[in-house]
Amino acid sequence: MASHGSSSTWRGRALAPVLVYLSAVVAVISSLGAPLIPTIAAAEHVSLTEAQWSLTITLLVGAVATPAMGRMGDGPLRRATILGTLAIVMVGNVLAALPFGFGCLIVGRGLQGVGLGLIPLSIATARQSLPAHRSRSAIGLLSVTVVAGVGLGYPLTGLIAEEFGFHASFWFGAAVSAAALVAAVLVVPGTRHLSPRPLDLLSAVLFGTVLAGLLLVLSEGESWGWTSPALLGMLAASLVCLAVWITVELRTDNPLVNLRQLGNRVVLTAAVVGLIAGTGTYLLLSLVTRLAQTPQSPGHGFGVSIVVAGLILLPFSVGTLVANKVVQQVAHRVSWHLTLPLSCAVILASMLMFGLARTGLWELFAVMGVAGLGVGTAFALIPEMVVTAVPHSEVGSAIGFNQVLRYVGFTTGSALSAVVLESRTPSGTVLPEAGGYTVAAVLGVVICAAAIVTAIVLPGRRRSELELPATGAQPTVVGGSEHEEVSPAGKAEQVRG
Question: Looking at 129-133, 243-247, 313-317, which range is the least confident one?
Answer without folding.
Answer: 129-133
